[in-house]
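Troubleshooting log. The previous structure file for this entry was overwritten by mistake, so regenerating from the original sequence record. Sequence copied from the archived sheet and checked twice against the printout by T.R.
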Amino acid sequence: MLFRSMTRGGQINLHNLRMLRQVVMTGFSISLFVGFITFGSVVYSKTPRYAYHQVFQYWKAECLLLLTPASREHKVTVQFLGPNGILYKRFAQNIVNDPIIAQNRRGLARVLYHSLNKGLMGVGVTSMLLLLFWMMRGLFMRQHHHRRGSSLISPNILRRRLWWRRKASDLKLDRVPLLKGKETAHMLITGTTGSGKTNAFHTLLPQIRKRGDRAIVVDLTGDLVSKYYREDYDILVNPLDARSLHWDLWKDCTALSHYDALSESIIPGKGTSHDPFWDEASRTLFRIAVQKLEEQNLKDPYLLYDLLTSSDMKTFQTFFDGTEASSYTTKDGEKTTLSVRAHLATHLSAFKYLHQSEEGFSLRDWINNPFYKDQWLFLSALPDQRKTLRPLISAWLDLSINALMSTTPESHRRLWFVMDELPALQRLPSLKTGLAELRKYGGCILAGLQSIPQLE
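Regenerated output below.
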């Protein structure tokens, strides 16, 4: 293990040294080439061609004089190219001593010196540029590159991007604006206990009220009612609260399909693992009972509760004789009837607290009549009332979603459905459809939960 680690470390270091040497040599070669090109270009541009020939003849004459004995130096001649391009012979000593040639030679030396400086400068600049380019390239290659999908950025960057693209909403969460016009895409706030879900609600709700939007607020703790309920303006629905309006379920059934929607909201079922017979039978009995009491002008919720859960079998059977629910009330199936009634009782326990009123409150009427633009509707229960009122509050919320989808599509309308603890409610049959279609009607769902599996 020790030798293996040493080998691995040594090979990595040696490989790094080889790569460094390759980079240095390549950079030096490129810089030297650029410097040479710079040197040659400056020399070529600063010196006339005739000066090159004169200096060449001078060097040639110097060499001949060095190789010739002193007694014969005065006889040495060199082929010399004149300014007019004609070749003629000149004595080597005359060429060496010519002041014009000496001046051209000194000028060429100055040009060469200047060109050398330029060339060295080119080598240095090229080396620095290569070093900077390779360093930036290396840093860039070390970074993670976002190819597709979402990316996590800082709040400041997100805020600037939204404002720059004019997509910032007037709704903000911790100083970060939401996407403009996208509140109808709904919001789900998740987090465990103490993570700040409720604080997020308290951040958004005052802004929603400031905009003048209407809202249906489900409050199962009493906290939201205590902070946002305006007794002289908002509406509270809770049969165990003296401030509550009295809900009239018959006013929410203005069409035959509404009876089906109401029965499914009251008795939503428990999923595919549960035998659907008991739910279907209970819904049928409830729907027929509501319809018959309306026909008999006996629209009393307590009477409905007493009939379905507490009346004797003879009264129960007589009431449903001749209806489609009669198959669930026959004497031969008395045990089945008792089981269905027991199942019904678990969903209707809150009905014994409902009161009959000539000016009963209708969820559908409130949703269809936006006379009070910024009025809020609170569906509330205190913690000790939660178990009793849970089926009723769930039914009210489900009916409200269904009622909004029964209106004319209106993209500029805004009606918020606020649920701090969504899993605390029972199953909402209209929720799945509402998430997909409420956008067309201006519905905005703001829900909170601790974890996604709670929805299963």
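The chain has a mean pLDDT of 84. Archived copy saved in two places this time.
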